[in-house]
Amino acid sequence: MFDDALLDEEAALARADATLRELAEAGARVRVDARSATEHQGAAPQDLSPRAVVAVGAEARLLRAVLEPVSPVPFVAWDRPSLPAWASSLDLVVVTSSGDAASRAAVAEAQRRGCMLLVAAAPHSALAEDAAGRWTTLLPVVTADPLAACVAVLQALHAAGLAPSTDAEGVAGCLDAVAIACSPFRDLGSNRAKQVADAVGDAQPLLWGGSVLAARAARRWAEGLRRVAGLPTFAGPATDLVPLLESAGPRDVFADPVDGEASARPRLVVLDDGSDDPRVRAERGGLAGAAERHDVGVDTVAAHDGDALGRYAALVATGGFVAAYVAVGLGL
């Protein structure tokens, strides 16, 4: 059973110190990797003019979500064992990875086909050594943070004329703001992450984000809540969530949660990145209406500052704090 008193208990928070500290340092990791990549990549890959870009490895789908609407060439996020059959020396393969076998295999295949390579990897790592070659641009990253590596890659793609400018300091600032707002030193009354953790700790969270990036952030929330706190969590589009809301039975006001009589009810969590798309507004209204009709609670987590990537980073970071606080409240 979730105990909200633990969220402000010093001893309980101390047990989660390593996790909370790692979350709080996310902004610093973005700065470190962005600076490392900029200082050591040498000449910016300005002469790249690929027919298409294929992204593989960690955060490949994030790169696609950010770049697909604005990329001057086709942009593909690829998660299969081998590269697309059409990939050749005309194409650029982007790899962001800590060096898993799949990414190393993608690098080896790209080199066999003569593809241009842009690789974010730790210096002297196996992946960096595999990627070394005439047509490779290596971005040395040192923190093993996928988001930080993604920011470094976006900066390099901007230098090559393949992406809009990415404000690494702005993204880091958004992450710093979340770390301050969600700090364990802020009590439940003024800490949004603790408040949401309290709301979903004994519930079945249903997560929704309307824009492409907010929907991706919702999936990251679900992964974190399942992994860290073991909560049965679902993230999906409004068309999938409305039936789940409508299937919620009436609340039993006499059930005693202390005796285990109260069953976990759905709890809708809306991730708002400030999108003004009419479709997003309509879907959000439909979800709110379904939740109200079936007495399902709703929590909204908003991130309206910064650019699109900064708002995404803020939502994901807040989800990390929520998952950590759920684990604290459950005594895990």
UniProtKB/TrEMBL annotation:
GO terms, biological process: carbohydrate derivative metabolic process; carbohydrate metabolic process
Regions annotated as coiled coil: none
Isomerase listed as a keyword: yes
Keyword Nucleus annotated: no
Record keywords: Isomerase
Example of a GO MF term: mannose-6-phosphate isomerase activity
Record domain Bifunctional glucose-6-phosphate/mannose-6-phosphate isomerase C-terminal: where: 191-331
Pfam family, one: bact-PGI_C
Signal sequence bounds: none
Similarity annotation: Belongs to the PGI/PMI family.
Protein name, UniProt field: Phosphoglucose isomerase-like protein
